[in-house]
Write a structure and sequence with these properties.
Layout (H helix, E strand, L loop, with lengths): L16 E8 L21 H6 L4 H4 L1 E10 L6 H15 L6 E5 L5 H11 L6 E4 L12 H12 L9 E5 L2 E4 L4 E2 L8 E2 L7 E4 L2 E4 L24 E5 L7 H8 L4 E6 L7 H12 L3 E6 L14 H4 L1 E3 L5 H11 L6 H10 L1
Helix pairs in contact: 4-9, 6-7
Amino acid sequence: MTVHEKMPGKSESTHARVVILATGGTIAGKAASGTQAGYESGQMTITSMIEAVPGLADLADVLGEQVANVGSQDMTFAIMIALVKRINALLADDTIRGVVVTHGTDTMEETAFFLNLTVVSGKPVVMTGAMRPATAVSADGPLNLYNAVAVAADPQAAGRGVLVVMNDRIHGAHSLTKTDTTSVETFLSPINGLIGTVMYGKTRYFRRPLRRHTATSSFSVAGITSLPRVDILYACADMPPDLIDCSVSKGAQGIVIAGDGNGNMNRETILRAAQAAEQGIIIVRSSRVPSGTVGRNVEIDDDRLGFIASDELNPAKARILLMLALLKKRSMEELQQLYYSY
């Protein structure tokens, strides 16, 4: 990793130190013109991104490191594990106030939730990105990065878990989800609402997360280089039940069902999933619906069938939690409790 030199500005004695870890994404993307929809992600380095945002030195002593440079559709757990290990090492340094992570928006909610479970510090960890490439007319990335650094440097952001700053909004990792393919207002937190807002570096906070996170999390990736396989299957009308068999045959230790409505699936798939559960495969019922909770033993008898209900977690986040949970042996009761706790 290459460390960017400290930006010129105020002295270290009067400024917080914030490290920006870059992973690529649209915020680092370029297009042939400022008005075309197509672009290529991850074309700018962290050095050029920092230099493109005037005023950062007024917020903090900013350092930058390039961890990866990919579109977030190509984000891997190997990158996530390397990222959180670097974050934990940085935040153990008393001279560092917080960390910003630049990331593509497609899988940002997954990486945010993964970090929310595996960062071991209460210091601010703030993710940001962009919906328009750096070359676009009205590119949103520079102001998002400015605001993210402001939040990471703000002592009031500590203890709120991993945050995502986009479009003047401060979201918590547990709740946010991407809701629009192209709009700059793509991220919403439909269940628990915003953590706060930030406008040109000025922050306002409304609440703290209710679930366990970061310094209060029981998860750790120390000594871990890979995670157990967990698949997501999308429920739909006349869903083929043999999709369950396919996942099991490919080595999935767990399956998350992106279910109809309140985590439902057709009768044949329920039967096949119950058979997989009897074989030790963990079946988690989530929902393809954008908002709401999946309740246990509501329309499906989870106790009898051996299923887990995802509660507030959407399929992508339910998968992240299960992958980390499967790193150690847990009872079904313990697994269900994790979905109520995180």
